Structure formats: C-alpha cells, structure tokens
Amino acid sequence: MIIFGTRTKVLTNKSQSAAGNCDYCGTAQSLLAYRQIKYFHIFWIPIFPYSAQIITICNHCKKLSYQSEINPQTLQSLSPGTVRKTPIGYFAGLMLIGLLVAAIVIAGISGAKKKEKYLKDPKVGDVYELSYAKDGKTMRTLYRIANLTTDSVTFEINDYEADSRKGLRKLREQHSNSYSEKQKVSRTELEDMKSKIASIERL
Questions:
Q1: Which one of 34, 48, 74, 148 is at 20 to 30 Å from 42 when CA atoms are compared?
Q2: Cα 124 to Cα 191: distance, rounded to the nearest angstrom
Q3: How far is residue 99's CA from residue 201's CA, in Å, rounded to a whole number?
Q4: For position 1, what pLDDT does the model report?
Q5: What is each CA distance from 36 to 13, 33, 180, in whole angstroms?
Q6: Which residues lie below 8 Å from residue 201, measured CB to CB, with a gap of 6+?
Q7: Vertex 112 angle, CA 178 and 98, to 5°
Q8: Angle of CA points 130, 133, 137, to nearest 5°
Q9: For the purposes of burial, counting CB atoms within 10 Å of the CB of 50, is it exposed (0-12), middle (13-18) or buried (19 or more)?
Q10: Percent of the chain at pLDDT above 70?
Q11: pLDDT tens readout for residues 114-170
C-alpha cells in the first residue's frame, strides 16, 4: 500500500529577533516570524512543497497571523535570514525522480549502443529478445544464435512466449534452454528485424 498525502511544517528559526509590533495587542517588538510550508509526500518522504508563506506569532498574546493578514510594513522590514528559506530536503522526491529518469535514459542509451554493436558483429550464443504482435497483444520471446555464415544467421527459437516483461523474466529463469525450432535468416533480414529486437545479451 502506498502512503501519500500532504503535510504542513513550520520551520524553526535560529534567530529569534523580533519582527515588529503586534497590531492585535499593541505590544512593541513582540512578533516572531516563521515560514510555514505545505508539501506533498510519499511514504513520508517529501516530494515537493506546493505552498509557502510567512506567519507571525505574538510572544505576548500568542496571536497567530498568516501572510495575508500581516502588516505590509512588517513584511518589508524582515531582514534576510530572519525567516528560514525552504530547505532543499523538501525537494528530495523531485531530486530522486530526476536521478531515476537520468538513470533510465543513460541505461536506454547504453542498451541501444550495445544492441547496434552486437547486430553488426553477431556471435553464436547471443540471445535476442524479440517482441511482436499476436491476437492484439504484444508478445515476447527469445531467439538464440545457433550458427553463423558470411551471409546468414541461424536462430534457435524459444518454445515459450510471454505477454509482459515480468513474464519474460520468468521465461528466462524457467525455460532458458527450451529451444527446439530453428529459423535461418539472411544478414539483410536480420537488419530488417532490428525494430522488433528489444535487447541482445551476450554471454
């Protein structure tokens, strides 16, 4: 079960210097200013803040005021450092997502380069993951190179097929040596098959 939602956090300040006079009770130099943020989280990991505002609390009457209620002069008088900025940790989820996307892109580029390299120089034992349409579904199976000549490539075709990536992983685990049918293709036909080849593994 994925636990997600929103939370509110009032950031503490290292400096407790007064932000101004309280308009409610009239006490001079009694206001303390803070930043309040609201953020989205998944499994209690902050993903990103979607709202931030300054709030003030009177140290005398304890009156809480939100940014829209605070005297504009008081807001303008706040010196840099009086109110904490939103810590970078509250963007942790976005950074993790960015790293994950970057890793996927890099892996995709690396896999594409490896596929091109192996297609140009096939070896006996290379295992090709092929995808194809069947009965309105995208099916997957494995082709293994059994023999090579100057002009042709002979594949052994796995006896099983899968309709998902998860199913293909199970196929690899349970039927990695279940090959009975063979198919011979020319080097030109192999190049034409490139769009159906998802990956090539070389032992």
A1: 34
A2: 17
A3: 26
A4: 59
A5: 11, 10, 67
A6: 126, 127, 129
A7: 115
A8: 110
A9: exposed
A10: 99
A11: 999 999 999 999 999 999 998 889 999 999 999 999 999 999 999 999 999 899 999
Total residues found in the chain within this entry: 203
Q: How far apart are CA 110 and CA 106, in angstroms?
A: 6
pTM for this prediction: 0.57
Phi, psi of 27, rounded to the nearest 5 degrees: -70, 130
CA distance 35 to 52: 7
Distance, in Å, from the CA atom of 29 to the CA atom of 164, rounded to the nearest integer, reads 66
What's the alpha-carbon Rg for the chain, to the nearest Å? Answer: 31
Contacts of 84 by beta carbon, 8 Å cutoff, 6+ apart:
11, 12, 13, 14, 34, 35
Cα 124 from Cα 98, distance rounded (Å): 39
DSSP SS3 for 13: coil
- The secondary element (H helix, E strand) that includes residue 40 is strand 31-42
In 98-163, the DSSP E strands lie at 127-134, 137-148, 152-158
